[in-house]
């Protein structure tokens, strides 16, 4: 587990560098803003459910952190993402992770990268496991749309906030309410 955490962190950093560059920012822009990043791991276990249509493994939500690296169970599907108003299955692929953009990267990129709605459903006869690794800004990181991305068009879509402020707002509501970033719009 410890080796896995170290490796996954390195992968997350590389992705953050590439995302920065893709936005026309300095390679270490995102890493600098997020500071000493926290890292959480959730080993999700979804037991079989005789009436899977009555419940969810996880209700629809966006991830409140910066970037999530998800390892799926190869044998059992369950993850879905919301695209154009429809829930689509994200089936497991061998030797592949699912990368979720979290709310903080949506804010930093001024909405260019989207923190997608996703959920997990359960199965009638098979249990499912997934391993989610969350990279999180340090509590006092000041999150604001990167200046170069606010200079044309709509300006800054979101106001400045600290991750601590965001996190308490996020968990102070129901998970499947409106996108939490809506509450931080300018
Ligand atoms: C999560 C999550 C999805 C899954 O832990 O935030 O979205 O497939 N997990 O378990
Ligand atoms: Ni999630």
From TrEMBL:
Q: Write the record's keywords in alphabetical order, separated by commas.
A: Iron, Metal-binding
The cross-references to SUPFAM superfamilies, in alphabetical order and at most eight, read:
Clavaminate synthase-like (SSF51197)
Gene3D superfamilies in the record, alphabetically? B-lactam Antibiotic, Isopenicillin N Synthase, Chain
Q: Which Pfam families match?
A: 2OG-FeII_Oxy
Q: Which GO terms describe its molecular function?
A: metal ion binding
Q: Which InterPro entries did the record assign? A: IPNS-like_FE2OG_OXY, IPNS-like_sf, Oxoglu/Fe-dep_dioxygenase_dom, Plant_2OG-oxidoreductases
Residue span(s) of domain Fe2OG dioxygenase:
37-137
- Tagged with keyword Endoplasmic reticulum: no
Domain of life, source organism: Eukaryota
Entry-linked PANTHER family: OXOGLUTARATE/IRON-DEPENDENT DIOXYGENASE (PTHR47991)
What's the name of the protein?
Fe2OG dioxygenase domain-containing protein
What is the species listed in this Swiss-Prot or TrEMBL entry?
Gossypium lobatum
Q: What is the lineage of its organism?
A: Eukaryota, Viridiplantae, Streptophyta, Embryophyta, Tracheophyta
């Amino acid at each position: 587990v410890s080796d896995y955490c170290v490796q996954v962190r390195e992968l997350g950093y590389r992705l953050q560098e590439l995302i920065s560059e893709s936005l026309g920012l300095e390679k270490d822009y995102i890493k600098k803003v997020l500071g000493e990043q926290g890292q959480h791991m959730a080993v999700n276990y979804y037991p079989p459910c005789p009436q899977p249509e009555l419940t969810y493994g996880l209700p629809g939500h966006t991830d409140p952190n910066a970037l999530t690296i998800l390892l799926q169970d190869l044998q059992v599907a369950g993850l879905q993402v919301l695209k154009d108003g429809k829930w689509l299955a994200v089936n497991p692929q061998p030797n592949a992770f699912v990368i979720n953009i979290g709310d903080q990267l949506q804010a930093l990129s001024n909405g260019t990268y989207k923190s997608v709605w996703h959920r997990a459903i359960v199965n009638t006869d098979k249990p499912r496991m997934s391993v989610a690794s969350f990279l999180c800004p340090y509590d006092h990181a000041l999150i604001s749309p990167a200046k170069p991305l606010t200079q044309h068009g709509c300006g800054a879509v979101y106001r400045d906030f600290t991750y601590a402020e965001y996190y308490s707002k996020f968990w102070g509501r129901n998970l499947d309410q409106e996108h939490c970033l809506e509450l931080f719009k300018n």
